[in-house]
What does this fold into?
Amino acid sequence: MPGDLSRLLNALGLILVDTVLALAFVDQLWFRDLPCPICILQRAGFTAAGFGLALNIMFGPRPSHYGVTLLGAVTGAAIAARQILEYAVPGSGFYGNDIFGLHLYTWAFIAFALMIIGSAILLLDDRQFARTEPWSSRLNVLPLTAFATFLVLAAGNVISTLLICGGGLCPATPAGYLILNDNLSLTLLSDAF
Amino acid sequence: MMSLPFLLFACGLGAAWLRQRGAAMGFWVAGLVVLLVLFRIHMGDVLNIAL
It folds into this structure.
């Protein structure tokens, strides 16, 4: 597999990660399903795993970049598995909405597993690492779009998490946007005096 | 504190955009460490899966 094809496949993979992170925002904003602390950490796991794909796009494919993806995906899978186990016992409840019968943390675990398998398959071809000439800093539209969207989604998660959790740890079951509620309380308090 | 991993990853992506691979990797490692610490803090309790 030539390096350019590898770069294209990494861009497609990053677009899938972008889609997952964007769907999480749709669930949060459209369906008003606020993420729990562990759900937020799973989003961070997707960002950690997608980081390796982004590095492959920017600097060309390297084994260390796939290592970044694998470590991020394993971390995310461990977090998702922990949440699945939390609700494994019948009658122990669940968190959030389900999609096609599975909850988001189960889908997250499946997605992380697919990322691990996909990265392992891409790692099998050594020819992508054999390029001798330097990688062009110019990117095609698809890799550029994938990278820019990923950066925007990571920055969006900084803002979203700050709004939900404030500067500290998140409440176990978030009831609203902590920072907005606090500011609202302060506004009401100042109105009272 | 919960937004710190995203912030570090976003900084890393910014560094990658500026072609600073070493800095990007550094931000990623820091982000992953913070992510693991936050996971430990939030999931320190014993699982109740006794059947």
